[in-house]
């Protein structure tokens, strides 16, 4: 691995990364990957060394890191080994230092200079060729033929009066039928929409909302970003804060996977969109703060709510539900009774969502401390706050496998909401 010329930072601080536990040849490792794709490196840290990473908060030098590791684990860590780990992290751009900041700035400049945000999952999750992609998505819709009516007796035909939907952001291979169910119902509303607000999960984001002025491209062309709305939002949120994590848009899949279906049901015709990434809800779930009292949300809602009466607007929450099982840190696989319990919890959540009750939706998550890791919590909550009281239908609930053994899963569903008649 090539080393950069600069020295180690005096007080190393680990930057936000994608961390996952894996087992290789019977040995447990913490796998580190760069969620911003500034680095192509991936590091495997043996499980006994993992506590060292948690100590890299910018308050300790290398010597203090070794002492703190020994106090925490009871094992002495030679200084040479501490430095070896730090050098590997530095060379992979995993530390918050000059090299990382310069790489991030270069990537952000390139992102903003491009004519549009490219469809990063084309050719991976879905076909890059527009004709092949249309056939792929049509096949998901065709698979619904002959399905029984929804349990609630809801009309399965497309509705033009929808104001909000919950669409998954899992890959199409696992969630294709659910995508097809919700977007088939929302097709008429999407085709007549004059503006679509897409709220996506920022899987790497701190609390808050992140904007971009970049249009989102799909294999059918470009969905132009409504810059006037984005600028109004930025003024309300504060420009530095609104764009502080803009680079997250470059690789985040949640908005992209909804944008592709939007463009598809519009037969390739563009419409203005407002793409917003929603960061972590950890402070709210932990009862440290109340999302209803959030100045950030209040400012955003003040800008966005009037649009729903001024223009034909569709609000899309690109959101999955639970993430459970060993793949997500749970000690045991999810068995059949566990699947039933999860389905019961999800039904209650979806009932609150389909009634437009943001407070009830959030309370149910908070009461269990988000033990089910609902990564779509922020966009669903904000969509419900934006739309307000509503009548809705739940479509296509599914529990998708998340490991080869079938003991981990991600639950998903579609929801469509309309204003009360």
List the helices and strands and how they pair.
Elements: E1 18-24, E2 27-33, E3 42-46, H1 50-54, H2 62-73, H3 79-91, H4 98-113, H5 130-142, E4 162-167, H6 172-192, E5 195-201, E6 209-210, E7 216-218, E8 221-223, H7 227-237, H8 239-242, H9 248-251, H10 253-265, E9 273-278, H11 282-285, H12 295-310, E10 313-318, E11 323-324, H13 336-354, H14 358-367, H15 377-387, E12 391-401, E13 409-418
Parallel strand pairs: 4-10, 5-9, 5-10
Antiparallel strand pairs: 1-2, 2-3, 4-13, 6-9, 7-8, 11-13, 12-13
Helix pairs in contact: 2-3, 5-6, 6-10, 7-12, 12-15, 13-14, 14-15
Structure description:
Helices cover 41% and strands 18% of the residues. With 421 residues, it is an alpha+beta fold. The protein folds into two domains: 18-106, no CATH class; 119-418, Protocatechuate 4,5-dioxygenase, Chain B (3-Layer(aba) Sandwich). Strands 4, 5, 6, 9, 10, 11, 12 and 13 form an eight-stranded mixed β-sheet that branches. Strands 1-2-3 form a three-stranded antiparallel β-sheet, with no helix packed on it. A two-stranded antiparallel sheet has the order 7-8. A hairpin with a 2-residue loop joins strand 7 (216-218) and strand 8 (221-223).
